[in-house]
Amino acid sequence: MADSAVRVRIAPSPTGEPHVGTAYIALFNYLFAKKHGGEFILRIEDTDATRSTPEFEQKVLDALKWCGLKWSEGPDIGGPYGPYRQSDRKHIYKPYVEKIVENGHGFRCFCTPERLEQMREAQRAAGKPPKYDGLCLNLSAEEVTSRVAAGEPHVVRMKIPAEGSCKFHDGVYGDVEIPWDAVDMQVLLKADDMPTYHMANVVDDHLMKITHVARGEEWLASVPKHILIYRYLGLEPPKFMHLSLMRNADKSKLSKRKNPTSISYYTALGYLPEALMNFLGLFFIQIADGEELLTIEELAEKFDPENLSKAGAIFDIQKLDWLNARWIREKLSEEEFAARVFTWAAENGRLKEGLKLSQSRISKLGELPDLAGFLFKSDLGLQPSAFAGVKSSPEELLEVLNTVQPDLEKILEWNKESIEAELRAVAERMGKKLKVIVAPLFVAVSGSQRSLPLFDSMELLGRAVVRQRLKVAAQVVASMGGSGK
Fold first, then answer.
1. Is 352 annotated as a binding residue?
2. What sign does the CA torsion over 433, 437, 442, 443 have?
3. According to DSSP H, which parts of 78-196 are helical?
4. What span, in angstroms and rounded, lies between the C-alpha atoms of 137 and 275?
5. Which pairs count as long-range contacts for 321-328, CB under 8 Å and 24+ apart, including other chains?
6. Is 256 known to be catalytic?
7. Any alpha helices (H) in 83-237, and if so which ranges?
8. Can the peptide bond before residue 54 be classed as cis, meaning omega within 30 degrees of 0?
9. Closest-CA residue to 207 (of 107, 89, 297)
10. Cβ–Cβ contacts within 10 Å for residue 77, how many?
């Protein structure tokens, strides 16, 4: 394949805060395109209509732009193979699904969600991996036609070979073989006529002429499904590359439950995008000591997709801090440094709105740092003594913090109104007064019991920073005497 024909893509789902893992995969694809003189494309995969939101889509675009990545085609700029948002392509997929059914490679499944859950529970109880048992596989054509005509809800599933295995070559893992009996009869089209990720992914990659698919290793087990769909449609699959997942130092998977993973968290704390891309790019290249400080252009020059490691990419925050410090000291002029500081402080309205909230709460300007400084701190240095003035017991404080954290994750649009509404709902559900819920949050978020208004502060800090501060606060409270920990 000629280098000039290379087309790669990043295809995030707008279902939450953009993850550093998305930047990691996007950077690989970007460097791959640069290396081969190809095209880097952005596609929004929003087939999960219940969780995808325009707010999260905009956050994806903003985060990737902040990272310094530029795409030649995407939902914001268009291109010859658009639209680049799957919800805008809904009409495209069904004919491909119907072709698979007509050629005998797919079937209509009328199983209810209740029946499927009972099936999975029985399989798990028997120690078997849950997968579809094929109940609707052999329905007669007459029965299928009758039930469809009656308007009975159904999905379309793909057939899987009864024996043998799927063999393919991966750009990182080499030759891979996965037995067909380990592959589920994947749903291709949901009851609402929206395609599943797997179906839309294959069709879109084909229509957008994607030549190489580089994604996280968690998708390796899905390759047999994708290869089958390509085969059933008579299409040539792209070349696959599955990159090692980023992991914590203890080799556990990087997840927001353990560590800050949102790009917005690193933006809020004042990391430079160049430093973050430098840090992530080092996973893809071989360098000698002393050559660590690299721009995206320099990373592209050293990038070697033929020499990738299957070892986990360790997200070492100390190394990121070290690189960020070097970028600040060595790469920015005094004027650039000042400009970056002002830009960072103004992000998300922190400076302007923070000053607006502070004006009626101070008697002299020198009180500003103590009152509003928490909006700009990377670490509050929270200690148990900060909770001394809160009347609740450590047990109650911990109960509040542990209850609030997952509830705030349910908020789709992060603003002071939605935050207040959610916390009022938490208070009502827990049978507590709102002030009992709010008091420990003031301390967790600001480090003090005297602060700016809580809901406004949480909006300005952003979801990712609030999540981390509540997590730290829960750890601090759990260490207090009488917490039962």
1. no
2. positive
3. 90-102, 113-125, 141-149
4. 53
5. 323/275, 323/278, 323/279, 323/292, 323/293, 324/271, 324/272, 324/275, 324/276, 326/275, 326/292, 326/293, 327/272, 327/274, 327/275, 327/278, 327/293, 328/272
6. yes
7. 90-102, 113-125, 141-149, 197-207, 223-232
8. no
9. 89
10. 12
DSSP H/E element including 175: strand 174-179
List, run by run, the mean pLDDT of 10-residue segments along the chain (485 residues): 75 91 96 96 88 88 96 97 94 96 97 96 94 95 96 97 96 95 96 92 97 95 97 97 87 76 95 97 86 94 82 87 97 97 96 97 96 96 93 94 94 94 96 95 93 96 96 94 49
Evaluated on CA atoms 321, 327, 333, 335, the torsion sign reads negative
Q: Which of 90, 94, 131, 256 is catalytic?
A: 256
Q: Which helix (H) or strand (E) holds 68?
A: none
Q: Tokens representing 152?
A: 């009975």
CA atoms within 13 Å, Cβ hemisphere of 32? 30
Are the beta carbons of 461 and 351 closer than 8 angstroms? no
State how far the Cα of 238 lies from the Cα of 219, in Å rounded to an integer: 14
**CA-to-CA distance for 405 and 93, rounded, in angstroms?**
38
Cα separation, 385 vs 389, whole angstroms? 8
Q: Is the dihedral of CA 478, 479, 484, 485 positive or negative?
A: positive
